[in-house]
Write a structure and sequence with these properties.
There is one protein chain. 47% of the residues lie in helices and 11% in strands. It starts with a helix and ends with a helix.
Length: 419
């Protein structure tokens, strides 16, 4: 009965569109004492003493250790849960209900093998690794957690370590959108330092700067591309963001960040690094962002807004669902690139690689919107044939392209109208 009660409570906690984080759980469980300040004093004997002023408890004294690789100091402690807050800078991930529940059931009968990892910032203790097992233990009624706490650590080194642990060395990966947030956060820190250096500022020189600071060239370029993608996703004018699973959990959605990376970002973002000096007449990165946001918004307004409705599952939704099946998206977005290139009279392949990396006038956008409307008006999106329906669901671009071509849904057909 106790487990059933906790499951019902967890269902209620995770209900709704907004993602739930560790702080939300702590606020629910400890209420007014959530995130209480801790008094931490270093002693001369290589120890640290923790005082919890809001509790009637004796101070804790722990030995201080030093990491042999980085020199960062840390200690271990049994922390009251009211002394812990989520580290939003290092841990932007929301909690996953399934993982919390599975760990709740496991840790109700088993010991915690490794401590949660935190850092001391002022008089606050911020938890950045082990949030799911911590959440699980809090659900089961634990009032104290085993923790490893870093004293005044290098935030950049912790970001790098945390990022690599969940990217290259991951056992359970971050959501792609979370990695975007993390890379973008590191990008901002390094960017400020780079801007203080001498010489012209270009993406190419920024990559070289990161390489000189210990990043591989692949890592440096990845940081840059993810920051560019993040700007597109966070633009308030981007109507497509509403239909990305990681950004709207209130319903089933047609896009994931990963799918966008394989389609719109792959086809329409000039692969960095650019050699154009920032904020000069040859630097069109901001125009590229605005253009891509405008293109994605046209797509959303033509075929998602007012159409995508999984609960209703009406004819408009079923039509949109066919157009936005993953394999179909991966087929028509390259077609869209060819369509836009024709409208802009861009024929050279080198120029096509930077298709939106230029100013585009309203007249051209009006034509692009008309062509997109024609693409989405093709009869194949409403074809009732079971054979067509099943073939459009396969995850094969070649197969889907063959179906579209056989039905006459081609770039040439889209461009064949003056509408």
């Amino acid at each position: 009965m106790s487990e059933f009660r906790d499951q019902l409570e967890m269902d209620n906690f995770f209900a709704g569109a907004s993602p739930r984080r560790l702080d939300d759980l702590l606020k629910l469980k400890v209420e007014s004492t959530f995130g209480s300040s801790v008094t931490v004093a270093k002693n001369g004997q290589g120890t640290v003493t923790l005082h919890f002023p809001w509790m009637n408890a004796a101070p804790q004294t722990s030995s201080i250790f030093s990491c042999p690789a980085t020199g960062m100091e840390y200690f271990y402690a049994l922390l009251p849960i009211s002394a812990i807050s989520n580290d939003a800078e290092l841990q932007p991930r929301p909690l996953e209900k399934k993982r919390v529940w599975e760990l709740y059931r496991h840790l109700s009968a088993h010991t915690q093998l490794a401590p949660a990892v935190c850092r001391l910032v002022g008089n606050k203790i911020l938890l950045f690794d082990g949030q799911h097992k911590s959440a699980a233990q809090i659900w089961s009624g634990r009032k104290f957690l085993d923790c490893k706490i870093y004293l005044e650590p290098s935030i950049t080194k912790l970001k790098d370590t945390n990022l690599v642990a969940h990217d290259k060395l991951r056992q359970m990966p971050f959501f792609t959108s979370t990695l975007l947030d993390k890379y973008s956060g590191i990008f901002k820190t390094e960017w400020l330092d780079f801007m203080e250096t001498d010489g012209i500022k270009t993406e190419s020189r920024f990559v070289s700067y990161l390489h000189g600071r210990g990043k591989t060239l692949i890592e440096a370029r990845k940081m840059l591309i993810m920051a560019i993608e993040q700007d597109v996703l966070e633009d308030r004018e981007n109507a497509l963001s509403e239909y990305i699973s990681e950004r709207n959990r209130s319903r089933k959605n047609p896009f994931t960040v990963s799918l966008l990376q394989k389609t719109f970002f792959k086809e329409f973002i000039l692969v960095p690094p650019s050699v154009a000096e920032f904020e000069t007449p040859s630097d069109f990165r901001q125009e590229e962002r605005k253009n891509l946001v405008r293109l994605m918004t046209i797509v959303a307004k033509l075929q998602l807004v007012g159409c995508w409705n999984p609960e209703a599952n009406n004819s408009a939704h079923r039509r949109a669902e066919r157009i936005f099946t993953a394999g179909v998206i991966r087929t028509w977005v390259p077609m869209l690139r060819d369509i836009v290139a024709q409208v802009l009279l861009v024929y050279d392949e080198a120029d096509r690689r930077k298709l939106l990396f230029r100013p585009i006038g309203d007249d051209s956008w009006a034509v692009i919107e008309g062509r997109l409307g024609r693409l989405f008006s093709h009869k194949i999106w409403d074809d009732p044939s079971p054979d067509i329906a099943s073939r459009l669901k396969v995850n094969s671009i070649e197969e889907i392209k063959a179906v579209l071509t056989a039905s006459g849904c081609t770039v040439a057909w889209v461009l064949g109208s003056s509408a």
